[in-house]
Design a protein that fits this description.
Radius of gyration: 62 Å
Distance between the termini: 184 Å
Order of helices and strands: HHHH
Largest sheet: none
Number of strands: 0
Structural class: mainly alpha
Helix content: over 70%
Length: 228
């Protein structure tokens, strides 16, 4: 039991030391722990830790029991003293194993978080570099756009002046069309008035020449009678 505990302690110390220095063993240990924490690995580790806790509690109970028994005896039994020291050593080693296991777990967790943070920082640096490159490109594009705007300004002013001239011409044409429309309306009114006057004159002429035609017919008839 003691040899196994010493072996586990030395193995855990090797793992902790490998975490402190950047060596190939460190990468191997990290990969092994990553695989150990997948699948059924955590269940196995928790089972072993629970077993160690039970054995530790049993050792502590045995120590307390032996000491309580020696209190009643007038002389201490050497065998009991050896058992007490043995149980104390085992309890100390098991507690040290559990403590080192917890330390390894925390170190592995922090190293993994540190790796993730480094990757995030590298991604942020790449993004910032690409942003700076895009910023320089956008500055060049902005300069080109400013030059193009400066070149297009005279053309725009020329087109605006031409547009104003065309608008003034269109307005003049509209006024001319309006004047012609009013003039045509006046002509139509004058034509209607003349047409009405013509109708009145025709009606008056018909009224005047109607009796003369009757007298002429009577005279002509009487002449024909006289000749006969």
């Amino acid at each position: 039991m003691l040899q196994l505990l010493y072996a586990v302690i030395f193995a855990e110390m090797f793992v902790i030391v490998s975490f402190l220095f950047k060596t190939p063993a460190r990468k191997l240990v990290i990969v092994t722990l990553d695989r150990l924490k997948r699948g059924r690995g955590p269940v196995v580790v928790k089972t072993v830790a629970a077993t160690l806790l039970v054995v530790l509690a049993s050792s502590l109970y045995s120590i307390a029991k032996i000491r309580h028994r020696n209190l009643d005896a007038p002389v201490a039994n050497p065998t009991d003293q050896v058992l007490v020291y043995k149980h104390m050593l085992e309890a100390s080693l098991m507690g040290f194993v559990l403590f080192l296991s917890l330390m390894i777990d925390r170190l592995h967790h922090y190293i993994r978080e540190l790796r993730l943070l480094r990757k995030a920082m590298e991604a942020a640096k790449k993004q910032s570099r690409s942003f700076e490159g895009g910023k320089s490109v956008s500055a060049a594009e902005h300069k080109a756009l400013v030059e193009e705007i400066a070149m297009l300004k005279p053309k725009i002013e020329k087109l605006e002046s031409e547009c104003e001239m065309e608008a003034s011409k269109a307005k003049a044409l509209e006024t001319e069309v309006e004047a012609l429309r009013k003039q045509s309306e006046g002509f139509l009114m004058e034509y209607d008035r003349l047409l009405a006057d013509n109708q009145n004159l025709r009606s008056q002429g018909a009224l005047r020449h109607g009796p003369d035609k009757r007298e002429l017919c009577q005279v002509t008839h009487s002449e024909w009678v006289y000749i006969a």
